């Protein structure tokens, strides 16, 4: 019995000794991602300032357009168009200075391996919002493969990319076309009945300069009023546009607004009153703005994260080409053939409507893709 008790005590003692000498498990170091930091920091003063600065490039842009048109009606007849340009440059200078406030994207810095810069950005946001950073070390896996131009032309996205490029070019062509065409219509009075007889200035002696296509005719007060009302149209259709995007989907909504844009371009050829012309221009500005809103959303949603910025960038490049072509149609061809210019704008919009309707991917209710 004594031997058995001694063995039991010895076994217990050895177990206690092994438990006491066992090394404690190493503590796992805490880590967090950019998304974790954003959620922890929360909404605050930084986001309000960011909203005001970035929003000014879109909504304050519209207010600036209305302000410039209003100023033009006063400045150009008194001190000339050069002073109008000087005054118009002031908001741009203010925006450039304001953009210095915006830090580089923390996600971009992390994706390129610059973790320290990303951490500094997040700490700055937390300080402005009077919040705290999550505990641990900022980590984010660096993507082994980043988006390339060839990815846009991959078999999976080739058709989508080509159709998106056509739509971006066409929308930009129509957008800047209607803006320039509005001034051309009012300046040269190309639409019959667009002005009343009392508003038409009749000159007894027409000089050769006044008959030149390069001669500038001064706007009447009613012309500035028409421009202001039509510009307001760019935000008038936004609620309907939002409902259409969410309920009808991106493709169908875009095809409908592009088709309506084509129709209203042709309606400009109708002999109408001044109120009718204002109505047509108002709807055109509303529709082309809705087209831009929808294609922006669709392009950002259809590409995965690794290709999204590349897809938006290349689409924006095609957009600039459409903007460069528009003046030749709105101000050159329209002077030679008014109906021909309108038919060209309308035809481009019809092509874009068909392209939008036949897009292979609908992004309504679809989660953002992270990888290709």
From TrEMBL:
Annotated transmembrane regions: 48-76, 83-102, 162-186, 336-359
Gene Ontology CC, one term: endomembrane system
One protein family per Pfam: Sugar_tr
Subcellular location, record wording: Endomembrane system
Keyword annotations of the record: Membrane, Transmembrane, Transmembrane helix, Transport
PANTHER family named in the record: SVOP LIKE, SYNAPTIC VESICLE GLYCOPROTEIN 2
Species assigned in the record: Canis lupus familiaris
Cleavable signal peptide: none
Membrane topology term: Multi-pass membrane protein
Name of the encoding gene: SVOPL
Assigned protein family: Belongs to the major facilitator superfamily.
Record GO terms (molecular function): transmembrane transporter activity
Entry protein name: SVOP like
Major facilitator superfamily (MFS) profile domain span: 1-364
Cross-referenced PROSITE patterns: MFS
